[in-house]
Amino acid sequence: LVILRLLHVVLLSIPFFSIPIFWTLTNIIHTLAMYVFLHAVKGTPFETPDQEKTRLLTHWEQMDYGISSIVLYLLARFHTKYDAAHFLINTASLLSILLAKLPQFHGVHLFGINKY
């Protein structure tokens, strides 16, 4: 949360952009960072008592109840004043994260990405 707030403050220091663009950029950068850190990395950085069952799972598949993406989406929607273009970008970003959390997609790797 602190890193996300710091990212937003850094983006706000860039001149020539409006507040809705900053919120959309914060949302997109958060989505991309979460993809890299949670979907591309497998296993755990520490030893777990599950006899290495999590070794083949990404961090996202090991977590539950990730609500930060929804809160960030709602903040971005409010601060972009419900603009249609920003709505489409932010909604696509949210759906790309949330669809992977559905039980039907647990352990599924689309297009063979990060399969091994």
Explained architecture:
- 54% of the residues lie in helices and 0% in strands.
- It holds the Pfam family ORMDL.
- It is found in: Membrane.
- This is ORM1-like protein 2.
- Ceramide-sensitive subunit of the serine palmitoyltransferase (SPT) complex, which is also composed of SPTLC1, SPTLC2/3 and SPTSSA/B.
What sequence of helices (H) and strands (E) makes up the elements?
HHHHH
Which geometry do the CA atoms define? Answer: elongated
Low-confidence stretches: none
- How many strands? 0
Distance between the termini: 31 Å
Helix- and strand-based class? mainly alpha
Main sheet properties: none
User: What's the helix count?
Assistant: 5
Strand content: under 5%
Radius of gyration: 16 Å
How would the blueprint of this fold be written?
Layout: H1 2-12, H2 19-39, H3 59-62, H4 68-79, H5 84-98
Helix pairs in contact: 1-2, 2-4, 2-5, 4-5
Transmembrane segments: 6-25
Main location: membrane
Protein name: ORM1-like protein 2
Keywords summarizing the entry:
ORM1-like protein 2; elongated; 54% helix; mainly alpha; 0% strand; single chain; 116 residues; transmembrane
Q: In a few lines, what is going on in this structure?
A:
The protein has 116 residues and is an all-alpha fold. The protein contains five helices and no strands.
